[in-house]
């Protein structure tokens, strides 16, 4: 682990794949101990100039007068490249030997002049001097500059017939075979083009994947953009399969996406397929390949591997709570989580394709037994297996039935993917290719999200909350002293480190202002209401509230009893895991990570009419909307067991102009929407939060009505916290 300075602290919430076996043209040119900034073709110049790289690649293989015997059978001075299959040499040549051997220096200088000079590639002399220092002695300073070596070669060739060198001992100033030079030059040119294309298409894929939400949001501000958006909304918000969205598909096949989400996923799949298949150049004969069939396979393997690395930062970004796309677009966090899963699947597919092709190449070339025991290969295999394991362990059944186990395994496996990926490329390329920069982007995204989470928690500080048990299934958690600007759609993540040893556990909850609840209670008390006379306290558990005007105004004496307006309240339905440990009327150490706003719901507050539909504890998700919008009506239904929640919120409900509550029975959502739509409003917002069935049924009804009603446009928001 000591060789990896960047990875021990990395814990990521999403996946990154380290490919099983990379490909390298090893000439000694690319070996570096300092990681390079950028990507090949974008900050990293590969084989520059090509003519100098080709000259060096041919001549560094020569046996020199200062070369020494090779008793170990290693492939020579330069680090062995697993892809090249270079034959074992019976001599070793040190860097100092290259830097001082006269025949080698003069032959290389003559080649530079012949193929890089004014009559050929026309490379400036200053650039040739730079290439000379870079290539000739693998970073060691040669005893002559390029200009001095060229003069020495010209003097040597004045009195002697130029001699061609093809193999064996080089103890004279030699010229190179033109056909051999062209093969190496063409090989480097096509390989450089391929690597530049890999980086280019990786950038395109990443930018488009992250940029589409921003571009579509900006399009809504263009002339006619809002009109087109409202016309498309009923089509894009509909589910792609029989009204399923929040509900699980049969046979635990997951959640059906909306049409809009499916279009993004389909486009992203198509983009990856296209950029994986296009823009390849080939050259034959080739310096590295023994057959024409190998070159396309290597290029495809490298392309899919780079694309997997390029997608990885996007996978992490889409799952982040502090996702910058949430601030720059009007897409919801729930949508980004759906896209995270699908983009992650694309990423794993690219990785698997890359791995299979690489493995096939090494097997058919007979290199697999030799490479499988090397560290770079092992780390790549670790990353590959971990990435596939993340995909398998993330199936819907595992997430729903064993969420905490899924979450921990997700993080642990991701650590293996990240570490394996970093070691894989670092041990193979030593930072020369810039592949690790994709990983650094992942680390930056993950690190920024985690840092902002900690800052949100630190800003609120450690709080002591009071837990009041309303029923066997429901508790109210009051957290005093929290001064947040609570707007509709605000939610937070609550940590209760004293409940169990898993102090990291947290869950999202809609946030209600404690002051709102207290004011409503005091207003009810000041008005003389009692639980027995309240319109919401029917003993047959089928009570309803119908109000068209506000309740009695609050008195000055009532306001004076409010000691503070700070504080937030959470209503929690106990289930398995952390929430099952909540007990009656006890104080708990509480950490709050928030507040998180939701820009995707901003359009609701601009509608002429807002219809809020809540089921059970889902009231917390719509309460601020119903209480804030100037023309809203709340419809709240619940099971008999949730009646204590209605009693606890009785004052808030009574303070609303229009509210209807049903206990023990459900509303007919279709009748509600028909009635509201026929009232003459031009825009009707529908906010729903509750059981999955209620959410899906409402989505299906609203999207169908939006497609068929010409005089009314609808704004739909569904909140279920089923991430």
Automatic annotation (TrEMBL):
Pfam families: FAD_binding_8 (PF08022), Ferric_reduct (PF01794). Its main location: membrane. Residues 1-22 form the signal peptide. Residues 520-539 are annotated as: Disordered. It is found in: Membrane. Residues 304-420 form the Ferric oxidoreductase domain. GO terms for molecular function: ferric-chelate reductase activity. This is Ferric oxidoreductase domain-containing protein. It comes from Stachybotrys chartarum (strain CBS 109288 / IBT 7711).
């Amino acid at each position: 682990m000591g060789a990896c300075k960047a990875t021990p602290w990395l814990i990521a919430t999403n996946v990154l794949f380290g490919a099983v076996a990379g490909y390298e043209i090893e000439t000694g040119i690319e070996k570096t101990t300092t990681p390079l900034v950028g990507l090949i073709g974008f900050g990293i110049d590969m084989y520059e100039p090509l003519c100098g790289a080709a000259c060096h690649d041919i001549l560094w293989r020569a046996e020199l007068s200062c070369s020494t015997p090779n008793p170990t059978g290693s492939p020579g001075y330069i680090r062995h490249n697993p892809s090249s299959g270079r034959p074992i040499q019976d001599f070793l040549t040190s860097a100092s030997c290259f830097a001082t051997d006269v025949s080698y220096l003069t032959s290389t200088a003559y080649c530079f002049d012949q193929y890089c000079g004014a009559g050929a590639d026309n490379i400036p002399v200053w650039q040739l001097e730079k290439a000379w220092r870079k290539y000739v002695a693998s970073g060691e300073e040669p005893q002559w500059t390029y200009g001095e070596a060229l003069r020495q070669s010209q003097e040597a060739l004045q009195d002697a017939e130029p001699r061609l060198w093809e193999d064996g001992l080089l103890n004279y100033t030699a010229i190179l075979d033109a056909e051999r030079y062209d093969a190496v030059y063409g090989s480097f040119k096509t390989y450089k083009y391929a690597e530049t294309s890999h980086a280019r298409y990786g950038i395109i894929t990443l930018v488009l994947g992250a940029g589409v939400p921003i571009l579509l949001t900006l399009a809504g501000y263009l002339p006619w953009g809002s009109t087109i958006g409202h016309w498309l909304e009923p089509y894009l918000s509909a589910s792609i399969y029989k009204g399923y969205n929040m509900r699980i598909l049969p046979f635990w096949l997951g959640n059906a996406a909306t049409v809009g989400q499916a279009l993004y996923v389909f486009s992203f799949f198509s983009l990856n397929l296209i950029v994986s298949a296009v823009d390849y150049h080939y050259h034959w004969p080739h310096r590295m390949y023994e057959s024409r069939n190998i070159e396309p396979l290597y290029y495809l393997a490298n392309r899919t591997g780079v694309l997997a690395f390029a997608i990885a930062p996007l996978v992490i970004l889409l799952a982040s709570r502090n996702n910058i796309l949430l601030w720059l677009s009007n897409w919801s966090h729930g949508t980004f989580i759906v896209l995270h899963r699908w983009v992650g699947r694309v990423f794993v597919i690219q990785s698997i394709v890359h791995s299979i092709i690489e493995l096939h190449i090494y097997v058919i070339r007979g290199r697999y037994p030799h490479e499988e025991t090397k560290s770079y290969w092992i780390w790549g295999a670790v990353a590959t297996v971990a990435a596939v394991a993340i995909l398998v362990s993330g199936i819907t059944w595992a997430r729903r039935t064993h969420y905490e186990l899924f979450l921990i395994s997700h993080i642990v496996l991701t650590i293996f993917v990240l570490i394996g990926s970093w070691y894989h490329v670092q041990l193979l390329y030593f930072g020369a290719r810039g592949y690790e920069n994709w990983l650094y982007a992942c680390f930056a995204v993950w690190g920024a999200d985690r840092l902002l989470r900690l800052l949100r928690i630190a800003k609120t500080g450690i709080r002591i909350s009071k837990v009041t048990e309303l029923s066997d299934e429901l508790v109210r958690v009051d957290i005093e002293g929290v001064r947040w600007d609570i707007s509709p759609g605000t939610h937070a993540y609550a940590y209760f480190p004293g409940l169990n040893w898993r102090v990291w556990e947290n869950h999202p909850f809609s946030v209600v202002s404690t002051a709102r609840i207290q004011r409503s209670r005091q207003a009810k008390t000041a008005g003389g209401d009692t639980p027995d006379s309240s319109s919401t306290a029917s003993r047959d558990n089928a009570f309803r509230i119908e109000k068209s005007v506000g309740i009695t105004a609050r008195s000055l004496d009532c306001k004076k009893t409010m000691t503070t307006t700070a504080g937030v309240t959470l209503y929690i339905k106990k289930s398995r895991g952390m929430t099952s440990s909540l007990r009656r009327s006890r104080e708990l150490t509480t950490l709050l990570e928030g507040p998180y706003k939701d820009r995707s719901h901003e359009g609701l507050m601009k509608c002429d009419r807002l219809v809020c539909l809540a089921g059970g504890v889902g009231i917390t998700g719509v309460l601020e909307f119903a209480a804030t919008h100037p023309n809203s009506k709340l419809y709240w239904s619940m099971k008999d067991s949730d009646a204590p929640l209605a009693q606890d919120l009785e004052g808030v409900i009574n303070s609303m102009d229009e509210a209807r509550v049903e206990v023990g029975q459900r509303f007919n959502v279709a009748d509600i929407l028909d009635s509201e739509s026929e009232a003459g409003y031009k825009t009707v917002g529908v906010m729903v939060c509750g059981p999955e069935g209620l959410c899906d049924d409402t989505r299906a009804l609203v999207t169908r009505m939006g497609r068929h009603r010409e005089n009314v446009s609808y704004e739909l928001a569904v909140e279920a916290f089923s991430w």
